[in-house]
Design goal:
mainly alpha, two-stranded antiparallel sheet, 20 helices, 6 strands, 4% strand, globular
């Protein structure tokens, strides 16, 4: 398929800080299986042929299934998000969220959901990243007074500041206020150009009154870190079309992933360079790597080709394209989960488990999705479902079997799947572990 080379990825620019190489995609055994490869331009094999191939592969892999370990536990903060345990993230969360829910936030449209959804989810991302409480609360109320990018507001900065200060605290409200009255685009462009955050901070102009607003190093860093979560939570292909000059782009469009990640990586790198990060967000190798925009585009194109055209290519070719995608952009999780499903269809249980683990690790780190077609909880649940089924060595081949999937742990399996090529390879009662 032309994507099975083992060249080193050219998808990042190394800077002055060391970074881990654990984001790079592993060699993909499915790509190396030349006997599985179909001729270029040929269509996928018919279901009956695939079924036969899977049965043969199942026999081959029987001995390796037992060696697949149970999936690792979900990180505690991610688990709190999945279970809507808001007070685990902030002891005062119930009160804060009640105020937002009583406001107009749930009525206001915002990109791929409501304004409330956006504020809430940015807050969760910052909590997963273990940012200071005031910074997380900035995320939860970040545009409450309106700002230079959006026109709506929830509170009046002329009359409501004391009420918001009492609710979220003086430090958090101060960040919210400054975030809402500075020229955010100017701050971002300055940080991107200088590749750091100034130690002396910035003298900004109030967007409505013109008065000077001073941003300290710490305040500017908080605003930039919020922006990392803000962009990644809200962005998808519709904004990419708008930024390319197509103001008539129909919302929501096909929901392809965003092309903003390269810019976000540069902001993250600058935030790390500024020296005021308490805990570097666990993205882009702890904010030490920068993604090249050409590699971001190549990764997206390869991934989206599989998403849109999987019926016209063999599973092996699709796996090769996905492997190339994560070589170009090793900071995204969804291609690994799509690849994991393809490995499951080929009964390559160990490879499926490895791909699912990689995809889940990325999603756990981000706290949000790159592919916005499904919400964060759905991608996590799907990845865990695949990982669980890989442990069992079982994958359905009919619509009834696929619709009976869902369990992510043995305690949730009440009975066998509706239909499958094979029965479970071991007694369900013998498989343990924690949720």
């Amino acid at each position: 398929c032309g994507h099975c080379t083992s060249k080193a990825p050219a998808n990042y620019m190394l800077r002055t800080l060391p970074w881990r190489t654990d984001g790079a995609a592993p060699a993909t055994p499915g790509c190396a299986r030349r006997s599985h490869k179909v001729a270029p331009g040929s269509r996928s094999r018919p279901a009956s042929t695939l079924t036969a191939a899977r049965m043969a592969a199942t026999s081959e892999h029987d001995e390796t299934i037992a060696s697949i370990s149970e999936a690792g536990p979900v990180p505690p903060l991610v688990k709190a998000v999945l279970h809507r345990q808001h007070r685990t993230l902030d002891a005062s969360a119930d009160k804060l969220i009640d105020v937002l829910q009583e406001s107009a936030a749930s009525d206001i449209w915002h990109k791929h959901g409501s304004f409330y959804d956006h504020l809430h989810d940015v807050w969760e991302v910052l909590c997963i990243w273990q940012q200071p409480q005031a910074w997380c609360r900035l995320g939860l109320f970040h545009s409450a007074y309106s700002n230079s990018f959006v026109s709506m507001n929830l509170f009046n900065p002329k009359t409501d500041r004391p009420k918001v200060q009492e609710l979220i605290g003086m430090d958090a409200e101060n960040l919210v206020y400054k975030f809402c009255v500075i020229d955010r685009k100017l701050l971002e462009e300055t940080v991107l150009e200088e590749e750091t955050i100034r130690a002396a901070g910035y003298e900004m102009s109030h967007i409505r009154t013109g008065e000077v607003v001073h941003l300290s190093l710490e305040e500017a860093t908080a605003c930039i870190v919020e922006t990392l979560a803000d962009f990644q939570e809200q962005s998808f292909g519709w904004q990419t079309e708008l930024e390319a000059g197509f103001a008539g782009a129909l919302w929501p469009g096909p929901m392809a992933p965003t092309l903003r990640m390269s810019m976000v990586s540069r902001l993250a790198y600058a935030a790390r360079q500024g020296g005021a990060l308490v805990t570097p967000p666990p993205i882009f190798s702890n904010c030490t790597a920068v993604l090249d925009p050409k590699d971001e585009k190549e990764a997206l194109d390869l991934y989206w080709d599989v998403v849109m055209n999987s019926k016209q290519m063999s599973p092996q070719d699709a796996i090769c394209k996905l492997s190339a995608s994560v070589k170009s952009n090793p900071f995204i999780g969804e291609p690994y989960l799509v690849k994991a499903q393809l490995h499951m269809q080929l009964a390559e249980w160990t490879h499926a488990a490895a791909a699912a683990d990689r995809g889940l690790d990325h999603l756990y780190s981000w706290g949000t999705t790159w592919d916005k077609r499904m919400p964060y909880q759905a991608w996590i649940a799907w990845g865990r479902c695949i990982r669980f089924q890989a442990t069992l060595g079982e994958w359905p081949t009919s619509w009834g079997g696929m619709e009976s999937l869902g369990a992510v742990h043995i305690s949730q399996r009440f009975r066998s799947l509706n239909t499958s090529d094979r029965s479970l390879v071991r007694d369900l009662k013998q498989i343990g572990g924690e949720h």
